């Protein structure tokens, strides 16, 4: 027996709806640290948390799916940071300061701008250390920050998508460094307060989007279990203070080679060598690493 057009349309609509729900992002805010207290789950853009009675009340959160931008003022104004899927038992500088929330949806291809073979990119630059102060968000290359009124202003950054090169001079000249996705609370000597150009680049050893390339030889994480803030290293680092990561690493991944991790700057104090592998917890070296160098 043939189904009626109405039934077919109804079944098709239900399928599309269930697929959309399955792929929608979901974020839960909690009024206390450690996922305690009152909670509110969001699945859609919320430009004003005052209306839900949750303005400036969130102290922890869980991003169950999607990528979410949280902002300190209504209408997505003020300082904003993007959070990936994961658990955040404390919000630190955003504690009791979130007023608007929205999911960052993948961009669809369109004309205009440089997209580097279809890859997307997004970086936020901040005028103060610790992702504070005036901010400038980029989605494409900028070869002269004087044109965007942010020359020699950036002191910290958050890379949400892509791998970016920041340079001290216009035209991608001078001191340049590569920044993979992560939070950089201090751009370090040579770039702190001296960034004049930025562009998307291929990650070292990679040749385009996808492909499972790694970002660097070593990854440091500020929380056990490979969570929290991340710092990617490809070369010897005499003082992690320059990257705002001194005494902060509590987990690490070594992708290649053998690396020595030391308690003091300039490879002083107690040092421990880690070969290729994933180290979910650093035990006695947790939150004590100040310098890193490759030994083999």
From TrEMBL:
<feature type="domain" description="Beta/gamma crystallin 'Greek key'">
    <location>
        <begin position="257"/>
        <end position="296"/>
    </location>
</feature>
<dbReference type="InterPro" id="IPR011024">
    <property type="entry name" value="G_crystallin-like"/>
</dbReference>
<dbReference type="InterPro" id="IPR050252">
    <property type="entry name" value="Beta/Gamma-Crystallin"/>
</dbReference>
<keyword id="KW-0677">Repeat</keyword>
<protein>
    <recommendedName>
        <fullName>Beta/gamma crystallin 'Greek key' domain-containing protein</fullName>
    </recommendedName>
</protein>
<comment type="similarity">
    <text>Belongs to the beta/gamma-crystallin family.</text>
</comment>
<dbReference type="Pfam" id="PF00030">
    <property type="entry name" value="Crystall"/>
</dbReference>
<keyword id="KW-0732">Signal</keyword>
<feature type="domain" description="Beta/gamma crystallin 'Greek key'">
    <location>
        <begin position="25"/>
        <end position="65"/>
    </location>
</feature>
<feature type="domain" description="Beta/gamma crystallin 'Greek key'">
    <location>
        <begin position="66"/>
        <end position="105"/>
    </location>
</feature>
<feature type="signal peptide">
    <location>
        <begin position="1"/>
        <end position="24"/>
    </location>
</feature>
<dbReference type="InterPro" id="IPR001064">
    <property type="entry name" value="Beta/gamma_crystallin"/>
</dbReference>
